């Protein structure tokens, strides 16, 4: 980005290349319109970051859900085996 840009430099690091290029072009503009465009660009960047955080949270929740399901399936299998063993003991006596 240009030194006179109001947009943070770290915006370029985690944003798509096209969006970073747009930010650089906006920073090179002069006049009142560039301020409006920089504000809109900032909102877009914030929205992208927010969506990425939400996506990461959803992925983490899904991973935890998968693990919980594996534990539940294991517990169910063990419970069924215990049930069958108890039925055999009761029926065999």
Structure overview:
It is built from two helices and no strands. By secondary structure, it is an all-alpha fold. The chain has one domain (about 10-90). Helix 1 packs antiparallel against helix 2. The longest helix has about 60 residues, at about 30-90. The termini are far apart.
Query: Treating each run of at least 4 consecutive H or I residues as one helix, how many helices?
Result: 2
Structural class: mainly alpha
Q: Which percent range fits the helix content? A: over 70%
Unreliable runs, pLDDT <50, ≥5 residues? 1-5
Q: Mean of the pLDDT scores?
A: 86
Form type: rod-shaped
How can the largest sheet be summarized?
Answer: none
List SSEs in N-to-C order.
HH
What is the total tally of β strands?
A: 0
Strand content: under 5%
The span between the termini is 83 Å
Summarize the structure.
This protein is mostly helical. 78% of the residues lie in helices and 0% in strands.
Give the SSE layout.
Layout: H1 17-28, H2 32-92
Helix pairs in contact: 1-2
Main traits of this protein?
93 residues; mainly alpha; rod-shaped; disordered N terminus
